[in-house]
Amino acid sequence: MNDATRQEWLLDDERPVERLDRVLAGLQGDLSRSRLQALIRDGQVTVDGAPVVDPNRKVGGGVRIALTVPPAVPAEPAGEAIDLTTVYEDDDVIVIDKPAGLVVHPAAGHDSGTLVNALIAHCGESLSGIGGVKRPGIVHRLDKDTSGLLVVAKNDLAHQALAAQFADHGRTGPLERAYLAILWGVPERRRGTVEAALARSTHNREKIVVVGEDRGRYAITHYEVLEGLPPREPIASLVRCELETGRTHQIRVHMAHLGHPLLGDATYGSGFKTKANRLSEPQKDALSALGRQALHAAILGFEHPRSGEFLRFESPLPQDMAKLLEALRAPI
What we know:
Blueprint: E1 5-10, E2 18-19, H1 20-27, H2 33-41, E3 45-47, E4 50-51, E5 58-59, E6 64-69, E7 86-89, E8 93-98, H3 115-123, E9 147-153, H4 156-168, E10 176-184, E11 191-195, E12 198-200, E13 208-210, E14 220-229, E15 236-243, H5 250-257, H6 281-290, E16 295-303, E17 310-314, H7 319-329
Helix pairs in contact: 1-2, 6-7
């Protein structure tokens, strides 16, 4: 299939009410139900002209359903000549300072132009295959708009050893990971821990939400306030965060749960947009120029999978966050 295909059905008025994915499975005989569910979540299905992203949505007789199937993509990502900032590299591992805006691995909507595509071109056939064809060598991830340090395994021995360290998250092993974040407001406690289970939202699959322990994945974030911004009457703060678990969007969701979402975080900090009205014009300009959540993976330390040597790397704030920090230090 080289082009997207679109199919439409008008359900008979007498048709009983059923889940959307089940209805589609009966109408479209070529695709598996799991594939249909993925297409629904990706916004490829409409009911009476309106996109529906919940496969559990109930539909009945008289509605018109349309399904768009995107063109097929290669099963394996191809190497692409994308510039990388390499902090360290040997025969087993490569440490990258990832820029904001770079997706780590191919996924829906990002079939090319990812870190994996760049690594395939850079490393050739040496990348570990344990992560699967879409994620060769990947043992941990950073969000697209989070910058900073990330280590990739170049062979299976390295992948297994690093995966064990990241699974432990430094609780008993040597792994060290620290992030710098700029938050709205200043947490009441200068040091603290957020312990709250996380799960994907049932209303918006792009969002992660705090849920009860019986419904989500256990998650712990430790934080330390480094400075208020500006020092007198601060409206924001620079905070260091360390993960004891590694869940999707963990720092962003936990800080928002604490009442202090990240500056620039359109997903979890939308309720704080009016806070920007208190900023000076230079501060507003710096925040607008950031265009992303103010989060940077600043420190990464791990035990080398072959030599056992502890390697530790630090990444300075990228220019966009550094300029925002400098602007926020100035009195309003």
